[in-house]
Design brief:
Length: 292
Amino acid sequence: MASTRDIRRRIKSVKNTRQITKAMELVAASKMKKAQGLALAGRPYAQLMANMLSALADRVEESHHPFLAKREIKTRGIILITTDKGLCGPLNANLFKLVLDIKTPAKYVVIGRKGAQFLARAKRDLLADFQVSDRVGFAEVKVVAEFMVQQFLEGAVDTVELIWPHFRNTLVQEPSIMPLLPLTSVKDVITDLRSDAGQPAATAPAHRNEMLFEPDAATVLDALLPLYINREIYQHVLDAKASEHSARMVAMKTAKDNATNLLGDLTLEYNKARQAAITQEILEISAASFAA
């Protein structure tokens, strides 16, 4: 049996660990709520964009826009959204499994240090890596979106896809992959925006016939579709941040609970060791007394 001194040291160490993990759990919970709030704050923007595109849909020729043009897919362009730090359970590992399942030629842009480290180890074609803060600024994500769109327009990649941890609820973050470019149609874009805004897919914009576009509908569409791509990537980065903080909160809670259980076991072991030492001392005193 370990000495009482060794057990006391372990108890102190476990208490410190429990205190740290509890603090990290509370911090992660706070950050998760903020990320969810930022994601919901974009709903009015999505609703307005859906209304404008709905008014444009019947006035433009979709096939003329490079985002809507069909092309042969030779090289996929993938934006991988991971975390900068660990201690978030299997969140990143599940995303990496999706990447390893991709056998076709692909080039990657990464948001998050963990993703860049993984792609370097896996020897995948990494075009660029970016980092964003916990309170994700739109300007930070816009740089990523514009870089990837430029690669698409120049023909370096033939698709733009997203791999990210989709936030289902506090306990479930599902690794997902979503095609972004080329777009299938303006109507599908409208449906997606209305879904994000919490609207029924068939909702018609108010005063649709009163919308006027200057200089013309095609020029406005050219300006709106890049904004849509920027918005989609930004929303998915926010979703990934909520997933990260949620996974870290759950991981830290599990660590805290394990520390509490271990602390109970160590306390019991310490009491047994102390009781054994006291009993042994009483026996030695009694033996000395009888010998005298």
